[in-house]
What we know:
The chain is mainly α. The chain has helices at residues 12-41, 46-74, 85-101, 112-137. It contains 4 helices and no strands. The protein is elongated.
Amino acid sequence: xxxxxxxxxxxxxxxxxxxxxxxxxxxxxxxxxxxxxxxxxxxxxxxxxxxxxxxxxxxxxxxxxxxxxxxxxxxxxxxxxxxxxxxxxxxxxxxxxxxxxxxxxxxxxxxxxxxxxxxxxxxxxxxxxxxxxxxxxxx
Length: 139
């Protein structure tokens, strides 16, 4: 986690880390697909549906945090001052969480591609909230 991305860019450890995060994104998308399908197609009691909805909500935040992390790792130097893997992971989760919460980012130098990703994340989260309310009201 202390790998300095600016110095060790595109070495074997950096490439393996990129692949690991890409695989994590695939796994989280798979989990999201399965849980969303389960919540919306199966008949479950209200408690199960609410717990599943909360799980999906938090999984979307984590998935987009991994996407942001992948972008920041793939292009070292996009965010000056954030150079280690630990810093990138922390910044990714903070940015993803703040985007969903509607809070201004605590970083001044957010790249445009990350802003675009968080805008898409915010749209997905709002549509998801509408779908959950609609699903729960149809019961």
